[in-house]
Amino acid sequence: MVYDGLKRNKRFFWILLVVSFCLFTVCKKTDRLSERDFPEIKEQGELRVLTLSGSMTYFMYKGEPKGYEYELLRDFADSHQLKLQIKLAENETKLTQMLLNGEGDVIACNIPITNEGKENLLYCGSKSINRQVLIQCAHRGNTLLRDVTDLIGKEIFVIHDSKYYHRLNHLNNELGGGIHIRTIDKDTISVEDLIEMVSKGEITYTVSDWDMAKLNKTYFHNLNINLTISHPQPSSWAVKQSTPALAEAIDTWFEETQNTPRYKGIIKRYFEMSKMPGDEPAPLMSPTQISPYDVFFKKQASIIHWDWRLLASIAFQESKFYTDRVSWAGATGLMGLMPRTAEIFGLSSDSLIYPESSIRTAVLLIKRLNRSFSSVQDENERIKFILAAYNAGSGHIYDAQALAKTHGKNPAAWSDNVEEYLKLKSLPEYYNDPVCKQGYFRAAETVNYVQAVLERWEYYKMKVMK
């Protein structure tokens, strides 16, 4: 009995020793990660990035990470041969908390520079000056508002309890009243939705930050964003005060890079290049021909048992039949394919400028997407899912299906079901849902894409023989 007790005690001692060693090792590793500065980051080869999911910061598009802040950070990391580990926070407040808790090395998101923040943070990188601006439609014949006093008597729509709502209230008090502030209480409307509604003439005015307004102007050319309604607010990236070498490295990189073609190219992609697709019917070459590439469409469409005119409709939506077209996101060639897609199917990205290669690769992708959405049994319905995934990447469509199912909708139906939840993925309460794996998504482009391709297909079917 005594011997057995000693044996048990000895076994317990060794278990306790092993557990203690493991905890010690984990704690040491955590301390090493949380206390590291740029020399340690370079030695370990990985930069942990804290950011937000959004159109300005980080999002997935056609299966590839995108975002203005992300691309800048990736360029910095590439210049130092560092891998990126992206960690998304739910909001701006949690970004700072996560940084101070040692969960990341840098906040790659323009956060306001404040005296309170300077107590714990080192602000670094590009110091931008943001401000709130009025979004108004600039159609010919419209009278544009050019001074804040012009807001008196006007209806301005903003999200309830947002920073734009509070700024308008302050401004209204400064002016002695008269601004008609209309609040949106729906949790299914985002700031970018309101901007689109102004462009379409559904509402008169709204307000957003200038950088978001400038990005959205590449989607809606009829917007005027010139009227500032707030004081300027400086903002930048941030690191912990205990990592001055990292702050210095980021500052040096910005100083050396901001006038290079590479940096200017990032600016151009997000704030200058048009993201408006062509939605007019393509002019027919003849009653029997849509494009010079019909022979390739017919050959490849037969492989997946599709109408070749549907492939032609996709091609026109992607490139207007220009074989050398490159989109803001890097989608290339006749069928608007990403270079990474070409690599997946064993092709070089250079091959995408050749029509037959582009169409053949697109059909391989469609074939894969057809398998991915095989649970959508109705073939016509499945085509909508395939088109949506072709444009957005399948991950966002899976997210929308999961959201639809969670909320009691049909994950195998597009209109009024998955389509609606894809639209809601621009709102934090939806893209932060645990069932969503791909984060923020701007769905208007994809929803319009599906509709435009299908409508043009119907047009081709009426005008061109099969």
From TrEMBL:
<keyword id="KW-0472">Membrane</keyword>
<dbReference type="GO" id="GO:0009279">
    <property type="term" value="C:cell outer membrane"/>
</dbReference>
<keyword id="KW-0998">Cell outer membrane</keyword>
<dbReference type="Pfam" id="PF00497">
    <property type="entry name" value="SBP_bac_3"/>
</dbReference>
<keyword id="KW-0456">Lyase</keyword>
<protein>
    <submittedName>
        <fullName>Membrane-bound lytic murein transglycosylase F</fullName>
        <ecNumber>4.2.2.-</ecNumber>
    </submittedName>
</protein>
<dbReference type="Pfam" id="PF01464">
    <property type="entry name" value="SLT"/>
</dbReference>
<keyword id="KW-0732">Signal</keyword>
<dbReference type="InterPro" id="IPR001638">
    <property type="entry name" value="Solute-binding_3/MltF_N"/>
</dbReference>
<dbReference type="InterPro" id="IPR008258">
    <property type="entry name" value="Transglycosylase_SLT_dom_1"/>
</dbReference>
<feature type="domain" description="Solute-binding protein family 3/N-terminal">
    <location>
        <begin position="46"/>
        <end position="274"/>
    </location>
</feature>
<dbReference type="GO" id="GO:0016829">
    <property type="term" value="F:lyase activity"/>
</dbReference>
<dbReference type="InterPro" id="IPR023346">
    <property type="entry name" value="Lysozyme-like_dom_sf"/>
</dbReference>
